[in-house]
Amino acid sequence: MCLSPFPPKSASVHVHASLPAPIHCLFSSPAQRFSSPFPHPPPLFSFLFSSQTERPSEQTAFCQTVTRGQNKTMSSVLQGKRKRQDLASRLSASMNNEEGRVYNIIRGRKEMGIWQGDIKREANIPDSLLKKSIKMLITKKLVKEVVNVQNRSKKLLMASDFEPSNEISGGEWYTEGKLDTEFIDKLSEACFSSIRRLKVATCEGILEWIRKAGGGVSKGQMEQILKKLVMENKVQEVTSDGSGDFESVPVGEVCYRLVKKAAGVGAMASIPCGVCPRINSCTPDGVISPTTCQYYQKWLDF
Fold first, then answer.
1. pTM of the predicted model, to two decimals?
2. Which of 18, 173, 185, 212 lies most in the core, judged by the most C-beta atoms within 10 Å?
3. Helix or strand or coil: residue 251?
């Protein structure tokens, strides 16, 4: 039995063949992204293209954004936060006493890393020798510098066979210590468009749709995106009653739908003239006119 987290190539091709063009764009290989027989993007991602004809440049930019975020997500979810590398050849290289002492201190902090000042106090070696040892360890790729999102100016040192914890890296939404807002926005748009198309959708439903396409978005990520949309008053969290639009969702299950916008106020009702009882007597050069109306002036000032 194959225990690989990735489906066999034949299965992957079969899945992609049955999916809309934008899904190929999101999760297929570069060679497959534009091989879909669909001439136009379906409604799910129509918000990304202003015209009815495809725009390869826009699709490519969107694909690159989402793929970058998903590659990062797949790396952390499927391989784990602690990616062990084969360090036998590196560790066999000669390290003097100071380098070995510094390396052991750094590696002992695991995924939390350690600041250079703390190493100096713990190792009790001269500053010049410490800097030289750290430089050699980085050159040998035994140690790396990582950015702490809580204090970007204070870089940490970490053994190369560890990945920074969420507390240090910021979690799956961060890339090299920076919040990947572009990926978040694109994923939010895709989630919003999916709910608009389905009218009512569950977190599991959206997640299953993405996973069938071969995406690596986690349930935690999807829940955070939905919470973001709720806080932005774009999506409403509701409980299914099993009727109407909720027929496809079991009774009592939490689901999401678009927020219903309140009916707009008519143009005439928004200005004083729309409710003025003397509007029939109002003329540009008369006793009652817009230039002498105090209510109209207040409305203009507002």
1. 0.45
2. 173
3. coil
DSSP state of 38: -
User: How is the chain split into domains, by residue range?
Assistant: 95-164, 181-258, 271-301
List of residues 6+ apart from 212 with CB closer than 8 A: 15, 19
In residues, how long is the chain? 302
pLDDT tens, residue by residue, 76-116: 444 444 444 455 445 545 677 777 788 888 888 787 888 87
Dump pLDDT digits (tens) for 237-272: 888 887 887 877 878 888 888 887 655 555 455 677
**Which amino acid is present at 241?**
D
Contacts of 279 (CB under 8 A, 6+ apart): 273
Measured CA distances, 265 to 261, 274, 290, 296 (Å)? 12, 11, 22, 18
DSSP β-ladder status, 235-239 and 178-179: unpaired
- What the block records as the tokens of 129 is 């020798």
What CATH fold (topology level) applies to the domain 181-258?
Arc Repressor Mutant, subunit A (1.10.10)
- Closest Cα to residue 216, out of 67, 81, 82? 67
Alpha helices in 80-152 (DSSP H): 88-91, 97-108, 116-123, 127-139
Domain 95-164 has CATH 2.40.10.340: no
**Secondary structure tally for the chain: helices H, strands E:** 12, 6
CA distance 225 to 100: 44
260: helix, strand or coil: coil
How many Å apart are CA 65 and CA 184, to the nearest integer? 9
